[in-house]
Design a protein that fits this description.
The chain is of the alpha/beta class. The chain has helices spanning 2-7, 25-41, 73-80, 99-108, 132-142, 159-168, 182-199, 216-224, 231-239, 243-265, 280-296; strands at residues 11-16, 46-49, 88-93, 114-119, 148-152, 171-178, 206-212, 269-275.
Length: 299
């Protein structure tokens, strides 16, 4: 469903961060019920569950929101989200796990319900248990039938070449970092599409991540994460009477722009909608944004 819709008008996913690791089982069940109810209100093709890692090695500046370890997304999915019957993309920060741990999960994964995105180390100096090329090779050896995606950072120089390399390593789709610079996302889609055509490759779908921003602190966190927020837009968000509404409208406009561009280009695409904040108002706004982007896609 996920890739089929990406090739046929645009895929749509909702991204969710699992509960904190310290959360009690009863409270986790309550959170899961709220998540399932939210999913049932929006017409999405799938769910993305994030694997949160400490990235202070990448950015030494103070993190606007503290790093708090969260549940293993695979455990959260298997034990609490059984009622969700559509595909789930489970992120794996592969450096957190040994090859044996990744291998065990790969062998047990239900490939009818589960896809994955492997994420490498946040910096070259970080101590890791498994490096991204090792994880990719392990998946090819153990579970080549597991649909695998890769991370795309639109603003990074020559990112389209990295996408082609990841495609060669077995990635069937890509999910971008949060997009606030729509032109950078269009540049990536264009560069990748034509580079694939030159090489006789079929381009894989790129799912563009959109995230609402409900406060100046959330804006600071987006910047800390490395999201490119153009100065004019950062000014608009800082000085808006309602920052959340301002960001929501920008995300919808960006979705319209990227949809029109990718459809004209012939590039398979989609959107992943998330909230980088755990504030309820921003999480609810992300669900509303998913509904609105669904309208943009013609649902």
């Amino acid at each position: 469903m996920l890739l089929a819709n990406a090739h046929d008008g645009g895929a749509l996913l909702l991204g969710v961060v699992p509960p904190r690791l310290t959360t009690g089982r009863e409270r986790v069940r309550e959170i899961a019920e709220v998540t399932l109810a939210r999913l049932n209100r929006v017409d999405v093709d799938g769910l993305a569950l994030y694997d949160i890692d400490d990235e202070s090695d990448r950015n030494p500046a103070e993190r606007p929101f503290p790093y708090l370890p969260t549940m293993d997304p695979a455990t959260y999915h298997a034990e609490y989200l059984g009622a969700w019957d559509r595909p789930t993309v489970i992120y794996r920060c592969v450096g957190k796990y040994t090859e044996a741990e990744l291998g065990t999960w790969l062998r047990q994964a239900d490939t009818g319900r589960v896809h994955s995105v492997f994420v490498g180390a946040s910096s070259k100096d970080k101590d890791v248990r498994t490096r991204l090329p090792q994880a990719q090779a392990l998946r090819r050896s153990v579970r080549p039938d597991l649909l695998l995606g890769g991370v795309a950072i639109a603003e990074r120089k020559d990112e389209y070449l990295r996408l082609i390399a990841k495609q060669t390593e077995g990635c069937s789709f890509f999910i971008s970092q949060v997009v606030y610079n729509t032109n950078a996302a269009k540049n990536l889609a264009s560069d990748y599409y034509y580079a694939c055509r030159e090489r006789g490759l079929a381009p894989n779908p790129i799912l563009f991540t959109l995230s609402v921003c409900g406060s100046v602190k959330t804006l600071a966190f987006l910047t800390w994460l490395g999201v490119d927020v153009p100065d004019w837009l950062a000014n608009s968000l800082r000085h808006a009477d309602d920052t959340l509404t301002e960001s929501f409208e920008h995300c919808v406009a960006g979705a319209r722009d990227l949809t029109a561009f990718c459809r004209k280009l012939g590039m398979p695409f989609g959107f992943l909608i998330e909230s980088v904040s755990n504030r309820r108002v921003e999480i609810e706004a992300s669900a509303a944004l998913a509904q609105e982007v669904g309208v943009v896609l013609g649902r």
